[in-house]
Design goal:
Length: about 200
């Protein structure tokens, strides 16, 4: 396995970890903020579809079959976030999506880069969910915005020259930062809603 696939696989594991942590965080928040509404299920399904497309992409297959989950994943995540009412929509999100979509002109294999673009969109939206969640502490919000922009910039750089050093640094740094933020927010959640309180609800 060449270094490019090794790095992308490591990042892929971080992305899967981030998807799981985001879902778990949204599930816990949902219990305290949204009552019985179960929008986290849509977020989990969207993340799962994104993960399926992403894993196949990392395996170097990128077939037309996986283009559908790559497109549906972000749609379900956006739906879940909009239904929750806990994430503020920002022009910044649209700019990031525009950069990713615009990067398609740099790609060669249409299907492969379509999957990569939509998977990247889903990941950036999940990062933005942390950044623009109304109760996210300001420090975590700033770091989440940084991770989202770092990942956004990775996409065109990697499409321009797959596996170049700058793209790989952005990819790994953004995913490591994202997972670290999510781990920190789980700690914040435990402080705000101690286990004894959670069990009594």
């Amino acid at each position: 396995m060449n270094p490019y696939h090794v790095i992308m696989s490591i990042g892929g594991l971080l992305v899967l970890t981030g998807i799981f942590l985001t879902w778990n965080l949204s599930r816990e928040i949902e219990r305290f903020r949204l009552g019985t509404r179960r929008v986290s299920a849509f977020m989990f399904l969207g993340g799962l579809l994104t993960a399926l497309a992403f894993v196949e992409l990392m395996a170097g297959m990128g077939t037309e079959t996986m283009a559908l989950p790559a497109i549906l994943g972000p749609a379900l995540i956006v739906y879940a976030l909009s239904e929750s009412g806990l994430v503020r929509a920002k022009l910044e999100m649209l700019l990031q999506v525009a950069v990713i979509v615009g990067s398609l002109v740099l790609g060669g294999n249409g299907t492969l880069y379509l999957i990569e673009s939509f998977s990247a969109m889903a990941i950036v939206v999940l990062m933005d969910a942390v950044a623009f969640y109304v109760h996210t502490p300001e420090r975590y919000g700033r770091l989440a915005r940084l991770s989202a922009w770092t990942f956004t910039l990775f996409v065109p750089l990697n499409m321009l020259e797959p596996g170049n050093v700058a793209a790989m640094v952005l990819y790994l740094s953004s995913t490591v930062l994202w997972v670290s933020i999510l781990a920190g927010l789980h700690g914040v959640l435990r402080e705000r809603f101690p286990r004894t309180v959670q069990e009594s609800l």
